[in-house]
Amino acid sequence: MPRPPRLPGGLPWLGHARAFGRDPVSFLRRGREAAGDVYSFHLLGQEVVFACGPPAHETVFHADESVLSPREAYRFMSPVFGAGIAYDAEPAVMDEQLGFVRPALTSARLQTYLDLMVGEAEEYFSRWGREGTADLAVSLNELTVAIAGRCLVGEEFQQRLSGELPGLYHDLESGIRLAGLLNPYLPLPAFRRRDRARRRIAAAIGEIVRERRRTPAPDRPDLLSVLMASSYADGSPLTEETVAGLLLALIFAGQHTSAVLATWTGVLLLEHPEHLPPLLAELDAAFATAADTATAAADTATAAAPDAGSALDLRTLLRLQRLDHCVREAERLRPPLVVLLRKALRPIDIDGHRVEPGTLVMLSPGVSHRLPHLFRDPDRYDPGRHAQGREEGKAAYSLIGFGGGKHRCVGLAFAYQQVKVIWAVLLRRFELELVRSPNPPDYSTFVPGPRAPCLVRYRSRQSASQGER
Ligand code: HEM
After folding, report:
1. Distance between Cα 54 and ligand 1 center (Å)
2. Taking a C-beta distance cutoff of 8 angstroms, is the pair 167, 62 a contact?
3. How far apart are CA 206 and CA 216, in angstroms?
4. If you placed Cys at 104, which of 75, 216, 226, 455 could pair as Cys (CB 3.0 to 4.6 Å)?
5. Which H/E stretch holds residue 341?
């Protein structure tokens, strides 16, 4: 079996770190054009094999952990997750930990979170007033911080840390950088800020756990209550450190990624406003149906009809197919995680190439989502490609923004629901227009959103329809 071809160039030891750090997606795409679907290059003294395309994705996503290890690849995340949590734990322990989390992400629970998500979104955007300018990335980050706090940890969390949270999460995320691949414990200011933020959040969660244990209440609609009710096979409860660590890991895995997907969903849509009228028509029709159903139900019950025209239930959300396609298209063109990693512990063949132990194996949703044999005219924004009849991302392992196989994201449905709620609420409330277009990605951060500032002008749909100026 041949070794993957090596990309030429690169500096001694640093390898291609400069070009990769500047824009990993363009760098990896250029590499593919020059060397094919599987090739190798150097990054900070580390041999990397990049692999692209469904056959390679399938092999990597299904490889045994003793052959391709996410744990070894994601060691740089350990200081965020904490000792013995998620990727820092042995694979069997991580499996057990995820087993505690899954019951909190079932469709029945998602229904409960829906009301919380809608409530937070309505409350947040009511503060925008009738018209103005806002930074979309900053706003959706604040909103997803509030939603994650509410659905995962509970309302006490928001009360305790509300103003501080966006800054604390920012410090956690800024602590994930290329230098962490070498050693995530180097004495860098960014790593110190990351550790301080983690201690502060974990301490707050610990206080809430202790308080809830002191004053037990009926089932609360958050993930913390699920974790506190969980126990190991021998019946012993999860320790306070494990509960706090798991929550932190989930917030970290799901909050900023959701904020970035929500931001790109809107930015791409507003950069292509020709897609807005059919989307708004779909929203209006779905809410009108919900209102009719509620009125009929109220008539039958001879009670006053609730204002279902403004409420968002799960059935209404599921009717929003065009919105779903817009989120999918944002996932395709601007996946929040642009590279996924594994460390080879034993030799493995990937798409006809031998990969040796010690190699870092890299997949890239950012590159694979633009393969022309999977997605027609791949650089074009075209939400309709996900509609019935075309379904371009349906082929196995072609859309991998949430990973695949054993380690596929457990929060996918939560994230999609959240992004759709945000845009259903926002588009129904406001007419929106980008101040600047296009908005290129900012690759200086681990989860790349649009380069700051990402400003939108907004105006209440109500005042617009009344012709107010
Ligand atoms: C737009 C938002 C999100 C994106 C793009 C995203 C993406 C991903 C990806 C790509 C993976 C696989 C990583 C790999 O194979 O190397 C993953 C795993 C994971 N995600 Fe998400 N995620 C998102 C939201 C969430 C949310 C909301 C949660 C939890 C509430 C979550 C929890 C997890 C966990 C626990 C894993 C590890 C699963 C495992 O290794 O078995 N994610 N996510």
Report:
1. 19
2. no
3. 15
4. 226
5. strand 340-344
Ligand 1 atom at minimal distance to the Cα of residue 341: 16
Using alpha carbons, select from 419, 437, 431 the residue that is nearest to residue 272: 437
- Both tokens of 119, joined, read 């409530």
Closest CA to 29 of 338, 445, 341: 338
Q: Which residue, among 245, 259, 267, 262, has the nearest Cα to 170 in the 3D structure?
A: 259
* Ligand 1: residue whose CA is nearest its atom 8: 402
The pick from 409, 410, 416 for probing ligand 1's pocket by mutation, whose C-beta has the most ligand atoms within 8 angstroms, reads 409
59 lines ligand 1 (CB under 6 A): no
414 lines ligand 1 (CB under 6 A): yes
CA of 412 to the centre of ligand 1 (A): 7
Asked whether 415 and 447 are in contact (CB, 8 A), the reply is no
User: Looking at ligand 1, which residue's alpha carbon is closest to its atom 20?
Assistant: 409
Task: Name the percent of the chain in helix, strand, coil, to the closest 5.
Answer: 55, 10, 35
Q: pLDDT tens, position by position, for the chain (469 residues)?
A: 899 999 999 899 899 999 999 999 999 999 999 999 999 999 989 999 999 999 999 999 999 999 999 999 998 888 888 888 988 888 888 899 999 999 889 888 898 899 999 999 999 999 999 999 999 999 999 999 999 988 998 888 888 887 888 888 888 888 777 777 778 888 889 899 999 999 999 999 999 999 998 887 777 888 999 899 898 888 888 888 889 889 988 988 899 999 999 999 999 999 999 999 999 999 999 888 776 666 666 565 544 433 434 567 877 888 899 999 999 999 999 999 999 999 999 999 999 999 999 999 999 999 999 999 999 999 999 999 999 999 998 899 999 999 999 899 999 999 999 999 999 999 999 999 999 999 999 998 889 999 999 999 999 988 666 654 4
Structural domains of the chain ordered from first start: 17-465 (1.10.630.10)
Instruction: Say if ligand 1 is within 6 A of residue 340 CB.
Output: yes
Pocket lining: 14 vs ligand 1, CB cutoff 6 Å = no
**How far apart are the C-alpha atoms of 458 and 136, rounded to whole Å?**
10
Dist CA 372 CA 379 (whole Å): 9
Sheet holding 430-434, edge to edge: 131-135, 455-460, 430-434
The CB of 448 under 6 Å from ligand 1? The reply is no
